[in-house]
Every structure is written in structure tokens, then in C-alpha cells.
Amino acid sequence: MIVERNFAGVIIFSFSKKDCEVYAMQMAKLNSNTADEKKLVDEVFNNALDVLSKEGRQLPQVENGLPLLRRGIAIHHGELLPILKEIIEILFGEGLLKGFFATETFAVDLNMPARAVLFTGPREYIQIAFRAGRQGLDDKGIVILMIDGKVSPAVGRDIVQGKADPINLAFHLTYNQPPSS
């Protein structure tokens, strides 16, 4: 659907590193970048890695990152090397990434709006959905929420309307309780 409707440049939020990796590998089969785009990805990637030692370049996340990036796919999570985060952010900003799989750490760390955002589940939807739509480039943002049949229509409506989950406190203060220091 993302490719068919030209929503490329989408950030797909998944709330575990493992899920991001699984979804990215599935999307990598599409091979979204042209030959010219792949050359640009190679150039950015190789220039940025000049700061890493030989051992640093041999880390699995470095060696496994380039094949995905060349296909227009990236994975962004809290355990990623800072230089790889920077490469991904540059490539995304230049439109060289068609699908960008991220955990919520991306939403907290950066302000990188996208044409569309997709959620693999309803968790933290309210806090992250605002990223859809690029100011000055898009007249609207696209938000896609993948939910299973277990979510009731009322819950789905509350999510889309921005209603937060209720806060249930486990601690109850009583008059007989001394103040803590």
C-alpha cells in the first residue's frame, strides 16, 4: 500500500528492536532505490565511515547496514552506533530511504517529519503521530495504524481522536502516612 500510494519516505514505528529488524527484512525484498540512488547511498555511507576504525567498520550493524540502506530501508533504535544514526538521518532527509523502521527512541531524539508514519500497533500512537507531514512540503500528513481484530471500534476511535489511556495509580496516600524525605 505504501508503494502503491506513493507514501515513500514513511517512518514505521515498531516498539521493539527485533520487530523493526523483522519488518525491515520483509520490506528489503522490494529493493526500492534506483541505481543512481544506490550510488549516493554508497557515497554518504563510505564517507561517514572514515571516522571509524577498521574494527568499527567490521561490527555487524555496520556490515549489515549498507545492504539495507542501498535498498532504501533503514533501522533506527537506541543501540545503534551514533555514526549510523547520523548516516540514516542524512539519507532520510535526502529522500534516499523509502522505509524507515524506528523504535520510539527516534521520536524522542529527533525532529524529522515524514510524509507518512505507520504504527505496527497502537502503543504511543498519540505521542508520535504528529510526525506525519513535512512542514512546507506536504499539505497533509498520512498516518497508518496497523491493528489486529482484537481492538474494539471504540478503542480505535479513542486512539485516533487522541484520547490518552487512563492513569491508574497503585500508590494511595493516607492521612496516617508520614511524609518521605
Automatic annotation (TrEMBL):
<keyword id="KW-0378">Hydrolase</keyword>
<keyword id="KW-0067">ATP-binding</keyword>
<dbReference type="GO" id="GO:0016787">
    <property type="term" value="F:hydrolase activity"/>
</dbReference>
<keyword id="KW-0347">Helicase</keyword>
<dbReference type="InterPro" id="IPR027417">
    <property type="entry name" value="P-loop_NTPase"/>
</dbReference>
<protein>
    <recommendedName>
        <fullName>Helicase C-terminal domain-containing protein</fullName>
    </recommendedName>
</protein>
<dbReference type="InterPro" id="IPR001650">
    <property type="entry name" value="Helicase_C-like"/>
</dbReference>
<dbReference type="GO" id="GO:0005524">
    <property type="term" value="F:ATP binding"/>
</dbReference>
<dbReference type="GO" id="GO:0004386">
    <property type="term" value="F:helicase activity"/>
</dbReference>
<dbReference type="GO" id="GO:0000460">
    <property type="term" value="P:maturation of 5.8S rRNA"/>
</dbReference>
<dbReference type="GO" id="GO:0005634">
    <property type="term" value="C:nucleus"/>
</dbReference>
<feature type="domain" description="Helicase C-terminal">
    <location>
        <begin position="60"/>
        <end position="136"/>
    </location>
</feature>
<keyword id="KW-0547">Nucleotide-binding</keyword>
<dbReference type="InterPro" id="IPR050699">
    <property type="entry name" value="RNA-DNA_Helicase"/>
</dbReference>
